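Bug #77: duplicate submission created two jobs. Keeping one. Sequence:
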Amino acid sequence: MPGKRLDEEERQLIAQFLWDGLGYSEIGRRLQRPASTIQREVVRNGGHNNYRPGAAHRAASERAMRRMPDVDDLDVDEEAYSFDRSPGQVKEFHLRLVGVFRQTGLTRTAARILAEIFMTDKGSLSATELVLRLSVSPGTISRSTTYLEELDLLRSERDGKRMRYFLDDDLWYRAWLSSAERNSVWAHTALEGSEIFGLDTPVGARLKDMGQFFAFVVVDMEATRQKWLDFFEKKKRARGDA
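Kept job's structure:
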């Protein structure tokens, strides 16, 4: 971790540790950072008694923006400039999309990353581009993209020295499939629990209702999955014929 910029979560922890009365060395140990890094961060942002993590993070983001990479490090999305789009409507939709993603349980940064890539015509962004667009540290991007990949919402490929993140055509199908598998686990676990507690007991009856509900959902989702596979195959064949 040494050498990477502090992220917003680490700054929140620094503020909490300062409030708890911890010294720079102990804070550095807990965050796996040099004590000098913690001391420099606190001193340059108000000192021990006036450190504000939000203001400190905004100041760091502004400094990072002033040290923008060379243009050659970025990819220009030429397609984005070939469409007649209203900047106001695009911005409003972007906020709505982030909100929708957050309602599904995604963290704020993960939702913003997914929205940024969705709204790029080429369907991919490099780690550097994400850092600049979101004004967050590379470490924050790395953690959030790893989280999205674990959810099967994103895939990554190395593009020279950079990591690039993509959306797959079957993105939602794979995410939905993961959800179906979780529902199946819920169903089996609840039904097993109902047998253990006894079907004639309040707990057993409650678990049985829960298990039957999720079992019904699983059956319904399986039927939907087959319909989608049939539709997707027809769609691929139509593209090939074209």
